Amino acid sequence: MAKLIVHQEKITNSQEFIQICPFNAMQEKDNEVIITAGCRMCRLCEKKGQGAVEYIADEVQPQIDKSKWRGIAVYVDHVDGKIHPVTYELLGKARELAAKIAQPVYALFIGNDIEKEADELLHYGADKVYVCEDSELKYFKIEAYTNVFAKFINEVQPSAILVGATPVGRQLAPRVAARFATGLTADCTVLDIKENTDLVQIRPAFGGNIMAQIQTPNTRPQMATVRYKVMDAPQRLDSAVGTIEHLDVAACDLVSHVDVLSVTKKAKETTIDMADVLVVAGRGIKKKQDLQMLEELAGLLGGEVASTRPLVEIGWLDPKKQVGLSGRTVRPKLIITCGVSGSVQFVAGMNHADMILAINNDSKAPIFKTANYAINGDVYEVVPQLINKIKAGEAVL
Amino acid sequence: MNTYKRLDQDDLKNITAFINRDRILWDNEINEEYSHDELSAKQHYPDMVVRAVSTEEISKLMHYASENHIAVTPRGAGTGLVGASVAIEHGIMLDTTLMNHFIELDEQNLTLTVEPGVLLMELADYVEKHGYLYPPDPGEKSATIGGNISTNAGGMRAVKFGVTRDYVRGLEVVLADGTIMTLGGKVVKNSSGYDLKDMIIGSEGTLAIITKAVLKLLPLPKKSVSLLVPFPTLAEAIRAVPPIIKSKAVPTAIEFMEREVIMDAEEYLGRKFPDNQADAYLLLKFDGNSMEEIASYYDKVAQICLQQGAIDLLIADTDERAESIWKARGAFLEAIKSSTTMMDEVDVVVPRSLVHNFVEYIHQLQSEMQIRIKCFGHAGDGNLHAYILKDQLSDEQWDKILNLTMDKLYSKARSLNGNVSGEHGIGYAKKEYLRNSVSDKAVVLMQGIKKVFDPLDILNPHKVCQE
Amino acid sequence: MKILVCIKQVPGTNKVEVDEKTGVLKRNGTDSKMNPYDLYALETALRIKEKYGGSVSVISMGPPQAKAVLYEAFAMGADEGALITDRKFGGADVLATSRTLSQGIKKFGEFDIILCGLQTTDGDTAQVGPEVAEMLNIPSICNIEKIEQVQDNTIIVDMDMPEDIERVRVEFPCLLTVKKDIFQPRLPSYIKQQQTQKKDIDIFTFSDMEDQNEKKYGLSGSPTHVERIFPPTSDKIQQHWQGTAQEISGQIYGLLREKKFIR
């Protein structure tokens, strides 16, 4: 087992020495500096300790034969056969990675009565789509799905597997990774591959304050999850290239301790706190009826309409829609403010949004200091035209 | 009755000569927000809004106003609750929010010099980044420091640290005739004649216009812990306050809150309060340099609370936990407001030992007057915020019941040796109640002071003590 | 009914920086706290106990200081606690952590329900829960937004799926991870804190583990290696657009397409 050894005689000032560790994993005890269980083996103490800490490496583990693991596999995320678009994004990525190492792309499609949808996957570059159908697989049941997944890995032996970081993928991937005692890297934002088939995975850590590059050098398959809309969606190919294969599993593998009692369509999320996209009405909105225009825009973007304090005060919008210090704090992926001047108390409730787009006809509006995109224009002209463009689905010039 | 000149195109032209036209709002350029403050029911539009950026500009403007007998209403963020920043005589509204610069942090004298338009939340942020605390902590964080000084704002930390007046070392002001004057300074002590600075503080813009302030800072305590203390009844909660104060434990804040108001806040914010086992709570906050130090303070208080009937003491020792409570506390005003059609407020202050009498009286008054009154406030300093709600009453009924209820509340406060306003001020809305609560002689003195500062009565007319 | 909650001590703040030259983490402040997501799991456990009876135990893995989160859990109402701590567990990734935790849980006892928070604020992976379940060979349900009912050695819960809410019944023993906001977590009680401040907790080290293969723990047992860490590229864009409404709306449309808000 790898370990760190502290050479006490080489420490000049133990108090300063202890400060080297960013995890507070060094303590002074009985005049000796010891490393506690807080140690993350970051080896910073070795780098900065001027010889006082020595790293004893692990005895070399036998290397696995990477050539026996070939291809990049994608788990097909779907609801009743309706394929989640993250799947296509991952197939596009898999295609790109596979081309670098000249290996095939696989897709794993688990469910009931889904084969008719499998063809579509071939239009996105899957060389082989493995379909496993059974009435027991109609609903996502973790044990059965894990068993099918395991069977797929044992049969196909893919080098790497990409899974969408959806509610299904996020619980299925770790169970599979644990079964194969292999590495799984969550929420990758960048993926690349080396000639030796090692997957280069980059992901944010500590709430996005740092990025980490992670590899899985000595186990296979390598596994990674990726969120929706992180990778680019590939173009659909006119012709289907690959083939569809069937994956059969034994009935005993489909036994489950979970019963699905009912499935209810989710009510549309109407609280502004949870919405991914917010369209905010400010004082630039002149009449209550004009809010409809913002409702329409929000609807097209799958978001909600929110409000500044003045519009709530005159009763145009419910107080629950108010963003700001005295209202709700929101953190959507996109916020479009329409005719909002940007009072401090408003900005304090929304300045952590991932992307802020402010439309205002006053080029000196304070909101422009906070906005990522300060758009100098008349809401009454820009928004209707934007709505038309979205509806028409125009190609971008 | 004093008559004031209404502004015309010539005035606009004249004023534009020394103030950039871009920063003047005229006629229909004037937003609706300038016609009222946070709570006023009626609208009064100024003829002109001037968004000043310097002392010199204000000096010139005041000189012009005094020459032409134009009423001037100073205004910060407009978050007041008593109509002090409403331009009853139209004229010029002087908006100071663009004067929002930090001028100097003097770490040797522990002072911060700011312009009046700096917002309280910006100020708190700024000093905390430098390791200091500006103790006054009124609930409305988007108010300006100029407004805070003009009302002698208090806030939750008054229990331990006092109020705004205690943290103003010096002021630069512009008098009604345009004279620029410095009062006080960075000095810690001052026995040099009448304290004019202290007269300006709390004068709600009727004596002079504040253009700069030198504030006193304290070192920032490193840690804080809030204790949420559930009690079976509000009476028991509030009766526990005097023994806590007597114990010398010195919490920075002692607030009280009731289930009903908490539920309004839950509804308003769409998030649950972390406890629901009781009808009434005390909320205590302790500051210190380490968690151990703070724990040693609240141990004693915990024993007192339990003896006084507290069900438990709940410890909010992380940011998330504290936020789950204080976010609700911060939303009370807006939450109550959104639970009714219209409301008016009472901001009385009584000796801390008598808070429970007053709160019990409010409860009794609700059934007597058949009206909903919601109440929360600073149990630790005797300052209560009671909100009388209109709900479904007709305007006529509302006026009648509101006036009667107000009269009763203020006369109760008087009988307990309390005052009309703890921290919101008198402005326009509470003038009559001030009259009733202080002696005639005191009113005469106040009017005399006003006359000395502003002989033409052009600064914020009809406010505080003026007819 | 025996309920176990897995809790973790995390840094008090996520404000970490990377030294651009050395690529080393710089931590500001030394405060730590219970992983905020775990508070929801603990609250869920306490509510189940209050409604159906039973006991709530807590387990954590970390340095000796991590005891603090166990005592915090006692002050919130947990009954028993155990800490898994050993230098040999240092440097563990998701797999090695899950293995250590599952070994520790086996040592601690048998539980009907194991509850975990959705994720931690320092690792953010949301993977340890399901991996532990796999290693214990028990069913797992993630993303739970509501506890419906406990009934004859099963629990009925609502799982939040992309488009649906699935109501599922799962047999004991099982592992559940709960969403944030399933319940508002209670605050620690002063009275309970006073009563439990001297309570004994179980300490498990490597020698207590059933699997005595050292290579399966800590850095050696971690298949993933962090090759390097670096600061994220700042994506604070500040652009000022003006033009005709036609031009501007076209630009916005293009931006929304590029950022995948519309397809």
In terms of topology, how is this protein built?
The complex is a heterotrimer of chains A (397), B (467) and C (263).
Chain A: E1 3-6, H1 14-18, E2 26-29, E3 32-35, H2 44-48, E4 53-56, E5 72-75, E6 78-79, E7 82-83, H3 85-101, E8 105-111, H4 115-122, E9 128-133, H5 142-156, E10 160-164, H6 169-179, E11 184-185, E12 190-193, E13 199-205, E14 210-215, E15 222-226, E16 243-246, E17 258-265, E18 277-281, H7 291-300, E19 304-307, H8 309-313, E20 334-338, H9 344-347, E21 355-360, H10 367-370, E22 373-376, H11 379-392
Parallel strand pairs in A: 5-8, 5-10, 8-9, 9-16, 10-15, 11-15, 18-19, 18-20, 20-21, 21-22
Antiparallel strand pairs in A: 1-4, 2-3, 6-7, 12-13, 13-14
Helix pairs in contact in A: 5-6, 7-11
Chain B: H1 9-16, E1 24-26, E2 48-51, H2 55-68, E3 72-75, E4 92-95, E5 102-106, E6 111-114, H3 120-129, E7 132-133, H4 145-151, H5 158-161, E8 168-174, E9 180-184, H6 196-200, E10 209-216, E11 218-219, E12 223-231, H7 234-239, H8 241-246, E13 253-258, H9 259-269, E14 280-288, H10 291-307, E15 314-316, H11 319-330, H12 332-338, E16 343-346, H13 355-369, E17 373-378, E18 383-389, H14 395-415, H15 431-437, H16 440-453
Parallel strand pairs in B: 2-4, 3-4
Antiparallel strand pairs in B: 1-2, 5-6, 6-10, 7-11, 8-9, 8-10, 12-14, 12-15, 13-14, 16-18, 17-18
Helix pairs in contact in B: 9-12, 13-14
Chain C: E1 2-7, E2 9-11, E3 16-18, E4 25-27, E5 32-34, H1 36-52, E6 55-61, H2 67-76, E7 80-84, H3 94-108, E8 113-117, H4 128-136, E9 140-151, E10 154-160, E11 164-171, E12 174-178, H5 190-196, E13 202-204, E14 225-230, E15 239-242, H6 245-258
Parallel strand pairs in C: 1-6, 1-8, 6-7, 7-13, 8-12, 9-12
Antiparallel strand pairs in C: 2-5, 3-4, 9-10, 10-11
Helix pairs in contact in C: 2-5, 3-4
